[in-house]
């Protein structure tokens, strides 16, 4: 059995009913109470009239001072937004110009470095001869060819003797012969045992490049050794 609605409960439901947010069960209970209660019926009519008057009331005009204040606040906000916008645009423009200038600087520096490396390579190629150089090369401050310091019998630097056997010897950084090549063997296909021993025991001052020992080549001759052994 449902509880009978009293006046206090009914009047709390006036506004929700007029706003159409009550469920059907409560609306029926409120209608039954209003039909039997003259006081609640009059109170509901007063609430309904008040809501109608408020809905149809002409709003009072805004004071001129308030209008000016609102407009000033709106203009200030718009000006602040425009200022921030142009500040960002100027910052972006500055960063773009800075990036372009930096790229140009880096490109110029890279091009200059590459040019310097190429020029240095060309100068080194011109000024420094190959490590395996001929003994007739003119010594420079950057490179000196090998020089014989101890010559066994019959062994000497290439001269004008037409009958001498000329040998191009490769000298290692320690001043020893590490390989050789016969340039004119006077009909022989190679060197005799005596000639090979002479090459083995020969001592050379090694070639130098920038003051450091390096490999080099020198032309030497056999003039007093019997080729036939």
Keywords:
four-stranded antiparallel beta sheet; rod-shaped; alpha+beta; three-stranded antiparallel beta sheet; 3 domains; TolA/TonB C-terminal domain; disordered C terminus; 9 strands; 229 residues
Structural description of this entry:
The protein starts with 6 loop residues before the first helix and ends in a 7-residue tail after the last strand. A hairpin with a 5-residue loop joins strand 4 (165-171) and strand 5 (177-184). It has 229 residues and is α+β, with helices and mostly antiparallel strands. The model is unreliable at 130-135 and 224-229 (pLDDT under 50). The strands form 3 sheets. Strands 3-9-4-5 form a 4-stranded antiparallel β-sheet. A 3-stranded antiparallel β-sheet has the order 1-7-8, with no helix packed on it. It has a two-stranded antiparallel sheet with strand order 2-6. Helices cover 50% and strands 17% of the residues. The protein has 6 helices and 9 strands, in the order H-H-H-H-H-E-E-E-E-E-H-E-E-E-E. The protein has 3 domains: 7-55, no CATH class; 60-127; 143-222, TolA/TonB C-terminal domain (2-Layer Sandwich), CATH 3.30.2420.
In helices, the fraction of residues equals 40-55%
Largest sheet: 4 strands, antiparallel
Instruction: Please report the total strand number as a whole number.
Output: 9
| Fraction in beta strands | 15-25%
The SSE order reads HHHHHEEEEEHEEEE
Summing up helix and strand content along with how strands pair, one would put the structural category as alpha+beta
| General shape | rod-shaped
Query: Any guess at the CATH architecture of the largest domain?
Result: 2-Layer Sandwich
Indicate the CATH topology of the largest domain. Answer: TolA/TonB C-terminal domain
Indicate how many domains the architecture comprises: 3
Instruction: Provide a count of the helices.
Output: 6
Return Rg in Å: 57 Å
The CA-CA distance between the termini, in Å, is 146 Å
CATH top-level class of the largest domain: Alpha Beta
């Amino acid at each position: 059995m449902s509880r009978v609605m009293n006046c206090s409960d009914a009047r709390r439901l006036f506004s929700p009913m007029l706003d159409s947010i009550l469920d059907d069960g409560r609306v029926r209970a409120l209608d039954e109470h209003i039909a039997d209660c003259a006081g609640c019926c009059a109170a509901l009519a007063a609430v309904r009239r008040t809501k109608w008057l408020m809905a149809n009331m002409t709003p009072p005009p805004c004071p001129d001072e308030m209008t000016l204040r609102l407009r000033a606040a709106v203009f200030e906000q718009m000006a602040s937004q425009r200022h921030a916008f142009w500040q960002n645009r100027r910052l972006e423009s500055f960063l773009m110009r800075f990036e372009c200038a930096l790229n140009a600087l880096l490109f110029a520096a890279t091009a200059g470095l590459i040019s310097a490396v190429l020029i240095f390579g060309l100068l080194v190629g011109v000024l420094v001869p190959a490590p395996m150089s001929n003994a007739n090369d003119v010594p420079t401050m950057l490179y000196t060819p090998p020089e014989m310091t101890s010559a066994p019998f019959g062994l000497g630097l290439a001269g004008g003797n037409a009958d001498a056997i000329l040998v191009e010897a490769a000298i290692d950084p320690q001043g020893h012969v590490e390989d050789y090549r016969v340039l004119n063997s006077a009909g022989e296909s190679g060197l005799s045992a005596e000639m090979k021993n002479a090459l083995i025991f020969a001592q050379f001052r090694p070639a130098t490049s920038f003051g450091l020992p390096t490999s080099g080549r020198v032309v030497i001759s056999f003039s007093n050794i019997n080729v036939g052994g």
